[in-house]
Amino acid sequence: METPSGVVFPVAGEEGRRSSTALGRAVVADALAGVDPAGARAAERERNWRRGYLPHFRRLLEAGLPSPQAARQIAADGLHALGDRMRVRTPTGDEVRLADALAEPGAWPAGEPLRGVTVTGRGAAERGLSLPYRGQLLRGDALARQLDAWEAAGTVESSCAEAVRAVAANPDWLDLSDLRVVVLGAGAEMGPVPALWRWGGEVVAVDLPVPGIWHRLARVAEEHAGRLHMPVRGRDEDPFTRAGVDLVADLPALAEWLSGMETRLVLGNYAYADGAAHVRVAAAADALAAYLLPRRPDTALASLATPTDVYAVPAATVAQANAAYQRRTALTRPVRWLTAGRLLRRNYPPGADPGVIDCLVPQQGPNYALAKRIQRWRATHARAQGHLVSLVVAPMTRTRSVLRNRALAAAYGGAHVFGVEVFDPPTSNTLMAALLVHDLRRPAPPRAHPWHDEAAGAAHGGVWRVAYAPRSALSLAALVGLGART
Question: Is the backbone peptide bond immediately before 349 cis, with ω within 30 degrees of 0?
């Protein structure tokens, strides 16, 4: 099999194969080594990484809780390990460290430069926040009531509801025409592109060079008030034939093009790929952030954190979950007894402050977990360096990638039994775009500990505040979901 060019996994083992498993294990161990040597050794010795990765990703969170410095060191060491271990294979067949590929001129030839082609929308900009939800368009009092309901039910954190209320009360914030929002993965369902264009935003779209993607994005842009800036190679009469850029293979050209833009940038990472390719994409996006942020310090960083990860959560969240557990104890005791405590375990120990919510889903695998953890590490590191960062925990959402996984689709279908709301993509991406607007227009200074920054504004769908540890209820939710589909 021919080795692809661009960002690739390093060769590992005697067989000389490029292994995402070896890379993931090594990066996690390196991230832990400085603050938790025992945890690092445990990760290094994990023989079945694909099945045994879960406790090591939890340890990455727990090892950083004792101090802000520990959390920041884990993030910095994890990013250093990624850049040091991942490789770039140039078109000539040479290989260099990812950390050096953009830092050293000529190490990764840029090839044909990119130029921008702009598509201008013909619609009128929306100047009030509206949220599509279950067939309705919520605005004004209806939006306020829904935010109150979500907050009371624990579907979103109070800081999330407060942020959306602030955006609704300040409709002028929605005008982001003074910025250019670079959207990596512009065609993604969870991306903010449609909402930004409704509000008249300037979107620099980055996605694969597939004409269908660009024709679709152009049609949406033309229907609204914003502008689409497309990266294009060459001078063909039809720019759509050569629009787009492969983030993994053509990063130098993209970095040069973005560096030359005069307007202040927001670098948003919403890109997704299946399996090991997701790690390659995440590594390339992180290398772009590492390149742009020191060269353009006013650049803001944006991304969405997955709800299926491990987080530290406030005492109030723990208290609500434990109150729900106490209410349901009599009903669920037989299930716990019959399954030797494997099912319907308590979500948090009493009085935990902070609590640790472990929503990792084995079916998503270690590559997905690493790709999303890289984004969190970069957010923590960028905040520590003084950059404006918007990272928000998104809700569980019925995206195409989730629904392709039968086990996850079934679990999402039954999640409501346990008090978890699964969102539709239009609701999620508009809500996430509103939170991005809030973070850009009312930026908060770094909080006392990075876990506070990650918990702020979370719209987790209620999974943080339910009675049971998520994996201990997953199979039961899946059974309910399968029953509903038959």
Answer: no
Asked if 275 and 367 touch (Cβ cutoff 8 Å), the reply is yes
Amino acid in the structure at residue 282: A
Question: How many angstroms separate the CA atoms of 89 and 67, rounded?
Answer: 38
User: pLDDT tens, 367-412?
Assistant: 999 999 999 999 999 999 999 999 999 999 998 887 888 878 888 8
Distance CA 478, CA 466 (A): 16
Q: Considering only CA atoms, which of 66, 79, 81 is closest in space to residue 35?
A: 66
DSSP string of 405-464, one letter each residue: SHHHHHHHHHGGGGTPPPBPHHHHHHHHHHHHHHHHHSPPPP-SSHHHHHHTT---TTGG
Structure tokens that stand for 17 in this block: 């194969």
Cα–Cα distance between 439 and 356 in angstroms, integer?
A: 25
Q: What is the distance between the alpha carbons of residues 54 and 369, in angstroms, rounded to a whole number?
A: 9
pLDDT over 70 at 65, yes or no:
yes
Torsions phi, psi for 243 (to 5 deg): -80, 150
- At CA 151, angle to CA 329 and CA 418, rounded to 5? 35
Residue of 59, 192, 159 whose CA lies nearest to 455: 159
Do 220 and 193 meet the contact criterion of CB atoms below 8 Å apart? yes
Cα separation, 180 vs 432, in Å, equals: 17
Mean pLDDT for the chain overall: 93
Q: Determine the Cα angle at 21 with ends 19 and 26, to 5°.
A: 100
Helix (H) or strand (E) holding 312: strand 310-313
Cis, bond preceding 354 (omega within 30 deg of 0): yes
Q: Quote the distance between the C-alpha of residue 422 and its chain's center.
A: 17
* E strand or H helix that includes residue 88: strand 87-89
**Model confidence over 293-345: pLDDT tens digits?**
999 999 999 999 999 999 999 999 999 999 999 887 666 776 766 676 678 88
Containing H/E element for 162?
helix 158-169
List Cα–Cα distances, 126 to 86, 119, 226, 472, in angstroms. 43, 18, 10, 44
Over the stretch 131-178, which tens digit does the pLDDT of each residue have? 999 999 999 999 999 999 999 999 999 999 999 999 999 999 999 999
Distance CA 311, CA 62 (A): 9
Does pLDDT of 355 surpass 50? Answer: yes
How far apart (Å, rounded) are the C-alpha atoms in residues 425 and 415?
17
Beta carbons of 346 and 356 less than 8 angstroms apart: no
What pLDDT sits at residue 144? Answer: 98
User: Quick one: pLDDT at residue 418?
Assistant: 87
Domain ranges of the chain: 1-90, 148-155+306-423+442-486
**Residue 115, strand partner residues:** 232
* pTM, full prediction: 0.95
Which of 294, 313, 452, 457 has the alpha carbon at shortest distance from 382? Answer: 294
